[in-house]
């Protein structure tokens, strides 16, 4: 028997057939675009998601030759936080839905900060008010499109919308519910107090079940569209990066992951959320919490540096050449420090921050700048790790994933900055594997989801990057300088 996993990403939707042992029989991927009609807006059509999901499911079944009768369950995961309005008849009310990256609701966040003690709200939700949370986006709909708000029976996040189309049942899981800004982190239920503060109706948000629970079964109409068997169980699933943690075997206290692609996401598995204004908290799909922070330009800073070097020379500089240049410079880049905030900073007190080099002298060459960019991204993460340490969080095992794992020098720098051995995973499909684990557990193919996750990850190819004692000591000194200059720059950009 197999699990069919649907992964609704920002750039594409994928359907995969996966065995209970984590073996992927096949994947069908269909791309889709993001529309940005105004600055700060990012949106997609939910109806297109379903059309592509339907075609991907049917396509992967045909390509693998797996009988629909052999599908024990269907599970969805994907991009988080985008509220899809659904009316009482199951029709989409938000033809174009705000994505996780859409910033149009920033005014809603500002008003919350101005009119309420955000520390008291964080004591309820475990989070600060940001434009990423579902409730802020729904608040924008209520203010600017009250007609849509009124006729919407449900506001469902992307993967829950796919499940709704499969089952005609509304449900969500704790990883997504904790990202609404309506979740009581201590009681693990929706907060009526937060709903009242934000002026929203809680009954418009889906009931919460565990990520591994069955939310419904495939309807006759969905079966006809997808090729699945009517009555096939549909498991709730979870948000993409939280499901990815499971696929990487990160289920133990203090387990962490550094995912570097365009951005960098650093997540730690914890029993409890971390109460700190610079840390956000979401529920882990396997229980407990996943405190995290993000660097929006974690990976794209490398591309920016490469493009800069190319434009200044006589030809294109590739990544290997840039890395070789940087490798020839000792740790510390000759005193040159890079602040990698090319797309602003996530920290509430410094959202207007910009990228900057500090400490430039006449002795610095292109190679110093190349290394400083890599060091700056690592030091920015290290600054946030210092917060974890100050509040008593011990980060143990760190797994690195994403495109950034192709840069060995960056990994060496991170190991030395963090002072922790890094485990580099070569598994590119941790999200699909993680969601399949949830599905397998939900339908009884797997007895212990934590053990299964560790067993599957153990089979993956991986390598260790260990810190160098002298380099790590040097970077501890540099980290202190990086942090001091950062603190001096807070507020500077407001009047820039």
UniProtKB/TrEMBL annotation:
Pfam families given in the database record: FGGY_C, FGGY_N
Chain ranges of the Carbohydrate kinase FGGY N-terminal domain: 2-247
Highest taxon, organism lineage: Bacteria
Keyword list, A-Z: Kinase, Transferase
Signal peptide: none
GO terms for MF: kinase activity; phosphotransferase activity, alcohol group as acceptor
InterPro entries: ATPase_NBD, Carb_kinase_FGGY, Carb_kinase_FGGY_CS, FGGY_C, FGGY_Carb_Kinase, FGGY_N
Carbohydrate kinase FGGY C-terminal domain location: 259-441
Protein's GO biological process: carbohydrate metabolic process
Keyword Kinase: yes
Family per similarity comment: Belongs to the FGGY kinase family.
PANTHER family: SUGAR KINASE (PTHR43095), XYLULOSE KINASE (PTHR43095:SF5)
Protein name: Xylulokinase
Organism of this sequence: Candidatus Zymogenus saltonus
